[in-house]
Amino acid sequence: MLLLPQIEHNFSYNKPYMSIDLSSFPKPTFVDWSSGLLEGEAIEQSRKTLGQLAGLFHDREAWSRMDPEIEVYKVRFWRPVPDGKTGGLFWGATTLNPGRVGDEYFMTHGHFHSLRDRAELYATISGEGALLLMDQESQTCSQTMTPGSVHYIPGNVAHRVVNTGSIPLVFVASWPSDAGHDYQKIRDTGFSKRMVARDGVPCLI
Ligand code: ZN
Q: How far away, in angstroms, is 162 Cα from ligand 1 center?
């Protein structure tokens, strides 16, 4: 016979509690798990072109020869609560196209969270890539992104995704609604390491 430990639930029924308006709950949205794409009326979208990512890639010469209208990535996201709300969560799906600027793979801009200690989850749907993680002392490491990989990004760590494959890299993410994005720090100092192709093989240098 299996003996289960007795668990005491120590609810306090005397404490005042917030009354919740059930009708105000955000309605569900939908994700196509084969493609990672979000669909629904509440979905917002932003896209980043090569021209908008000026200064990000180390080979400025190669960058200047490319069409600035080339789409590097787009993000579809769902904000079921207002931006900045403490205790809420957001959801997003990013499609990062394959390509290179010189020997450097296409990548997302990368950011710290404005509230530095806020964490985030990434999960890969399709494609191959690398998640670059950099702490506040500018130490950078990478994790391989492959279909099914789930990545925990701790607080106080900048994060950037690189597509090292030949098809779009699609990943979903969930992050706290009060995290915010600090892109300026990355514009100013960048990541301490870059993912480049050496003899066709991704290499973190
Ligand atoms: Zn983030």
A: 14
> Would residue 182 count as lying in a domain?
yes
Say how many Å lie between the CA of residue 112 and the centre of ligand 1: 6
Distance from the CA of 5 to the center of ligand 1, in angstroms?
40
User: How far is the centre of ligand 1, averaged over its atoms, from the C-alpha of 64 (Å)?
Assistant: 28
Cβ neighbours for 55, distance < 8 A, ≥ 6 positions apart: 187
Report the distance separating Cα 125 and Cα 52, nearest Å: 26
167 belongs to a structural domain: yes
pLDDT at position 14:
56
14 CA to centre of ligand 1 in angstroms: 39
- What is the phi/psi pair of residue 186, to 5°? -75, -35
SS3 (DSSP) at 60: helix
Assign residue 123 the CATH number of its domain.
Answer: 2.60.120.10
Q: How many domains does the chain have?
A: 1
The model's pLDDT over 100-126, given as tens digits with 9 standing for 90+, comes to: 999 999 999 999 999 999 999 999 999
Q: Are 94 and 132 in contact (CB under 8 A)?
A: no
Cα(72) to ligand 1 centroid in Å equals 18
Q: How far is the CA of 120 from the centre of ligand 1 (A)?
A: 6
pTM (2 decimals)? 0.89
* Distance in Å, CA 88 to ligand 1 centroid: 14
The residues of the chain scoring below 50 in pLDDT are 12
- Please indicate, yes or no, if residue 23 is contained in any of the structural domains: no
Is residue 11, in this structure, part of any structural domain at all?
Answer: no
Q: Whole domain around residue 198: which residue ranges?
A: 29-204
